[in-house]
Amino acid sequence: MRHFPSHALKGAILAALTAFPAFAFDGQTITDATGREVLVPANPARVFAAGPPASTLLYTLKPEAMVGWVRAPKKGDLPFLLPATAELPELGRLTGKGDTLNLEGLLASEPDLIVDYGTVNDTYKDLAARVQEQAGVPYVLIDGSFAALPQSIRDMGKVLAVPERAETLAAYAEAALAENDALLAEIPEDQRPTVYLARGPEGLETAGKGSINAEIIERVGGRNVAEVESKGLANVSPEQVQGWAPEVIITIDRDFAANVGSMPEWQGVPAVKNGRVYLAPSAPFGFIDTPPSVNRLIGLKWLAHKLYPDHAKGDLKADVAAFYGLFYGVKPDEAAITALLGG
Amino acid sequence: MLGLIAALLVGAAVGPYPLSLRQIAEVLSGGGEAQAQTVLWNIRLPRVFAAALVGAALSAAGAAYQTVFRNPLVSPDILGVSAGAGFGAVLGILLGLPVMAIQMAGFGAGIGTVALVMLLSLSLRGGGQVLVLVLCGIAVGALAGAGISLVKLLADPEQQLPAITFWLMGSLAGIKRPDVAAALPAILLGLAPLIALRWRIGILSLGDDEARSMGIEAGRLRLLVIACATLMTSASVAMAGVIGWIGLMVPHMARLITGPRFDRLLPVAMLTGAGFMVLVDTAARTIAVMEVPLGILTAVLGAPVFVWLLTRGAKSWAE
Amino acid sequence: MSPLLQARDLTVGHGAKPILSGVGLTLERGEVLCLLGPNGAGKTTLFRSLMGLLPVLGGEVRLREAALPTLSRRDIAARLAYVPQALTTPFAFRAIDLMLMAAAARLGPFAQPGRAERERALAAMAKLGIADLAEAEITRLSGGQRQMVLIARAMAQGAEAVVMDEPTASLDFANRIRVGRAIRQLADDGAGVILSTHDPDQAAALGDRALLVGRGGALAMGKVAEVMTPATLSELYGIPVRRELLTDGALHFRG
């Protein structure tokens, strides 16, 4: 017994350690967007989405695996959702500060996997690791940037063990993005309108260039007037909007869309003067952001029709119907689509 | 006075929409192009006026509170009016009420909060004493603060939460003429008794026993002052959100000029507050493309000024 | 003519708990009435009750012929002025501002003090020899100067009777003498002064009459020389007290 073969011992321990989970746990190892290696179940059946974007992506890929909503759907959303998901409980969110769910509540919903979809940075990486360690439930974070959408759908599909479904949706996403690029190729820079994104009942909240909330406006070639310093939402004054003189206003607020015509401080803004204020549909998920997830693919087409009425191809209503059928699994009738798009 | 006029002129002349001084003069004399008219009459001037109004109201309320509570460190929030008004307004946002209703909710809740504090303190043993009153204010204010947190938690994080956050930091960005018209009567109603009784209110700073021995109905007068200050602060908060510092700091600045006599302090505090607020708001809408919340600016500008004033000698009040 | 201030069978205290009971006193024009008693005997409570700042628990207080509860605060202030133990305002008022406040009882609710009030205030200050303090901030004055200002203010208030709560308690020797003279002057001008003090010598020097209150009730009231005997003072303070007659006729008490 001159030398103990230390490498052999190490190998044995390593084998034991890796073999043990293999007996107890039928799963696969995923490297998520943060670079963490996460062992996830082979076929997750109870998945908890950490925030609204993840919730939407999960719904489109594997609705039967949802354990609940981050926020319960509103009444107007229900016709556009699978009936089985309408009754899922509201569980709250788990993404960083402002959590509305504690870990015990999370565990009470008995998830076998937590997915998050959105910003990737050290905070979220750390959060994912902490929750996973504390709750003992694997936590996977997928990159939420719009550019990476097709790949993110595939990644999520792999995690959720629905690769075929993911491939179909990812292909749609790629086609939508390609179609958008083709459209933009036809339209010179100077013919693309300036756009202001109006949020809140006063229309004075906006999202600047580079913000996730206004990302797809630029993707469709709209020139966002709000060159604000903030990455997130910002408040601006009506005088500032007057100074920007946007040609198109996109809003997600129903009240603002209804009232802007009679609000004195908005008079004279080109978009208001020319009737180019558009209310983005929001059921079951928003077209612009709310949440910033796959729902924005149809927003891309809708925006193209609003920004370039002369260039945009295809029948918007048919596109919307197809998208809702493919992604949300519902078949709204003609009247519902018309109502959705604001008549 | 001159300072206020200068501040008003700067406020009217500067803004993110490019208007030359000639255009402004044209509009003010009844002419000018339609767009310039819209910007000036509907947006900029109401806002400048609102800023002056809020600054004057908060400063007057602060000066009155510091006098009747005999404490230079008191701000108009001491009885929970801002927290209460904030709670009412964010609740309105949560419920998706129209803007005017949100402001009314804030106004009503601010007044209701202080009324609750008064009732509570009067029903307690030793009721009516300043200490009991202030402690009740702190307790009820904390409750309202908790209510705000709860509303934030319940709010839709994509749409309502940002609106609530902006509102709580204070802003005049969305101010319109009807908003000013709604707040003006309440502020004037609160201000009138303060002005009319300004000299007698000053005597309250001697303490109840002394003031009463000189023929002042101290308890009743203080109640009136609290009611007036609450009316003004509630209206301001409902219109402009929660703007800190002004009500604490401006009375100090004014006191350096006038000394502690409330009858002299009140008008100077109002003018100073109005001018200061107009300048701060002008900065809020011009230093960056996005609106800088007023609450941040008043603190950032105010705290250093305040410390500087204090180092110059805290001669306006005894240590 | 009825006394400036009269209390009959008075019971005073905070809330429902009596501190002092069975107190009777009268205050006439031109006299100084000294209130002597150990700490905690309820002197301040008694004073606050006399001014109507505390409701009495029994008995009654009259200013001239009027019962206290029938008078408004303004009426009381016109008849009875108050010199507190010390100023408690945190603000740096000028002395003249403080003086002007004495006009509150005479001015209407919306009125401001004018030239007449200012003259009156300055006259009162001049009388006490502190006219040069008018523009000074009270926070920069010495304790004695502040007390002089407060006495001048009581003069300017124009009340016939003045209540002083330990007016010399925190003063040095010289200021004690000055303030004592000012109090005497006030009385010589026709006002009635009731003051509390811990110094029997001062009470004997300053006072015309004395009221001795021990824990629970009044011990004696009458002319200083008659009431302030070694026996009563020994009983009042709970230690043996001796009385000496100094060569100038003043009384001196030793423990």
Task: Describe the protein's architecture and organization.
- The complex is a heterotrimer of chains A (about 350), B (about 325) and C (about 260).
- Chain A is about 40% helix and about 15% strand.
- Chain A is an alpha/beta fold.
- Chain A has 2 domains: about 25-170, Nitrogenase molybdenum iron protein domain (Rossmann fold, 3-Layer(aba) Sandwich); about 185-340, 3-Layer(aba) Sandwich (Rossmann fold).
- In chain A, the strands form 4 sheets. In chain A, strands 8-6-10-11 form a 4-stranded parallel beta sheet.
- In chain A, β4, α5 and β5 form a beta-alpha-beta unit.
- In chain A, α6 (about 150-160) packs antiparallel against α7 (about 165-185), α7 runs parallel beside α12 (about 295-305) and α12 (about 295-305) packs antiparallel against α13 (about 315-330).
- Chain A is globular, with a radius of gyration of 23 Å.
- Chain A starts with 5 loop residues before the first helix and ends with a helix.
- With about 325 residues, chain B is mainly alpha-helical.
- Chain B has a single domain (about 1-310), classed as ABC transporter involved in vitamin B12 uptake, BtuC, CATH 1.10.3470.10.
- Chain B is built from 14 helices and no strands.
- Chain B has helices spanning about 1-15, 20-30, 35-70, 80-95, 100-125, 130-155, 160-170, 175-195, 200-205, 210-215, 220-240, 245-260, 260-285, 295-310.
- In chain B, α4 (about 80-95) packs antiparallel against α7.
- Chain B is globular, with a radius of gyration of 20 Å.
- By secondary structure, chain C is of the alpha/beta class.
- Chain C has one domain (about 5-255): P-loop containing nucleotide triphosphate hydrolases (Rossmann fold, 3-Layer(aba) Sandwich), CATH 3.40.50.
- Chain C has helices spanning about 45-50, 75-80, 95-100, 115-125, 145-155, 175-190, 200-205, 225, 230-235, and strands at about 5-15, 15-25, 30-35, 60-65, 65, 80-85, 160-165, 190-195, 210-215, 215-225, 240-245, 250-255.
- A 10-stranded mixed beta sheet of chain C has the order 5-4-1-2-10-9-3-8-7-6, with helices on both faces. A two-stranded antiparallel ribbon of chain C has the order 11-12.
- In chain C, α4 (about 115-125) packs across α5 (about 145-155) and α5 runs parallel beside α6 (about 175-190).
- Chain C is globular and about 55 Å long.
- The chains are: A alpha/beta (about 350), B mainly alpha (about 325), C alpha/beta (about 260).
- The interface of A and B includes residues 239, 240 and 268 of A.
